[in-house]
Amino acid sequence: MARTQLIIFISSLLILPLAFPSTAAYKDVSEKPVEKKVDVVVEGVVYCQSCERFGTWSLTGAKTIPSAKVSVICKSHKGQVSFYKAFEADETGYFYGELDGFTISHALLDHPLQSCKVKLVSSPDENCRLLSNVNYGMYGAPLRFENKRLMGSNYEAVVYSAGPLAFRPNHCPPTPHY
To answer: What is the phi/psi pair of residue 5, to 5°?
Structure first.
């Protein structure tokens, strides 16, 4: 009798794990791996070009314009506008814009380097509101990849630069020609 009870006890110990499976032994197939979010970011600085450098692309003597507005326009490989957003510079004239909602429909042709441009929109400086074409700010400054990335545990941002853009003064005194 003791032997029968011992066999039943050992059998129940062997069968018990089958009745209560360990959760650690099974991987939850419904659980998806966390995808890393990759954002596209554009940065640059907006200046007011000095009167002495008017007509050139030189920014020597230029001052930054706080709260200046720029826009990022991206077009698909078919020429259709696929993304538009305006960004405002901070108190140092620096703008940093995340292109939330920007999608690439064609991996090569719709890449931000080929499809996106940054344009000057407006300046809050009453004395420096005219558009200049420094770095093609009037018609669209192309983006440059400078191998700059911001990384987090589930986040990555690829940062593109638009280069410095500039407005020019509303009125510059005529330069004397000797």
So the answer is: -65, -35
Phi, psi dihedral angles at 161 (to 5 degrees) = -110, 140
Place of tokens 């009037």: 138
> Residue 151: is its pLDDT beyond 80?
yes
Give the chain's length: 178
DSSP, collapsed to helix, strand or coil, labels residue 65 as coil
Single-letter amino acid code for the residue at 69: K
Type of residue numbered 163: G
Q: Residue 67: pLDDT band by 50, 70, 90 thresholds?
A: very high
What is the signed CA dihedral for 121, 124, 126, 129, rounded to 10 degrees? -20
Q: Taking the CB of residue 90, how many other CB atoms lie within 10 A of it?
A: 13
Q: What is the pTM of this model?
A: 0.73
